[in-house]
Amino acid sequence: MSQKLENLSGAVDGELDDTSDFSAFASDSESTQKWKRYHLARDILRGDASGDLTFSVSERVAKALEQELPIVAPKPSWKEIPLVAGVIPIFKQTSQLAAAACVTALVIFSYQSYNQPEETQPFTSAPSTFGPIGGLSPVSLEQNGSVSDQVRMQQLLEQRRQLNALIEDHERQLRLKQTIQKQDKVQSEQR
User: Fold this and answer.
1) What is the pLDDT of residues 152-189, one digit of tens each?
2) How far apart are CA 151 and CA 136, in angstroms?
3) pLDDT tens-digit readout, 10-45
4) Where do the domains of the chain lie?
5) For residues 169 and 142, what is the distance between their CA atoms, to the nearest angstrom?
6) Cα Dmax for the chain
7) d(CA 50, CA 114)
8) 8 A C-beta contact, residue 135 and residue 116
């Protein structure tokens, strides 16, 4: 192929005397197109080109565009959308607080139900027969009642103390988390 191009270039420059190569150039459409382009370039370089030259570049550009593959822009991920990027941290913090509240509620309710005294029905241990022999006799509940009220009051106070301790611990953890987030934000701004 390179020999063919050299012969074509030599023919354009007038260095080729063999007429058999001219017939080979005329039969090949690619060689004919190159022959025309070479002559046009030679005439323009020498200043011999006519002033009424017109080039139809738009047709070649249109053909090239038709052959181009379409360019498809990638869809942005949901993290790149500005509104979503602003809502995600809020949702994340809210979900963490909700999880902490659920765990706290679960601990409180399970503790209360676990530490509840057993309900005893009076007179359940008495024999089932009625009458003078082994019958039921009334008993004064005031002495036992005041003791059970005191025990219940102590249990209630202990539960409240533990609940307050849990709430105080939760508030400390929130403050610590906020402090850490502020420090992280300051460090990221300094970078």
Assistant:
1) 889 999 999 999 999 999 999 999 999 999 999 888 88
2) 27
3) 776 777 666 666 666 677 778 788 878 877 887 788
4) 2-50, 89-118+147-191
5) 40
6) 152
7) 106
8) no
Within a 10 A sphere around the Cβ of 11, how many other Cβ atoms? 19
- Which residue, among 88, 4, 12, has the nearest Cα to 46 in the 3D structure? 12
Q: Which of 92, 180, 89 is nearest to 188 (CA)?
A: 180
Cα separation of 143 and 121, whole Å?
17
CA pair distance 61, 25, nearest whole angstrom:
27
| Residue whose pair of structure tokens reads 């601990």 in the numeric block | 107
Is-contact 178 119, C-beta < 8 A?
no
Distance CA 16, CA 6 (A): 10
pTM score of the predicted model: 0.28
- Give the HSE-up count for residue 34: Cα atoms under 13 Å, Cβ half-sphere: 17
Kindly state the DSSP code that residue 55 receives in the 8-state scheme.
Answer: -
Contact indicator for 18, 6 with CB cutoff of 8 Å: no
Residue 103 three-state SS = helix
Q: 178 is written with which tokens?
A: 């906020």
The residues near 141 (Cβ < 8 Å, ≥ 6 apart) are 122
Tokens at residue 50, please? 């006519």
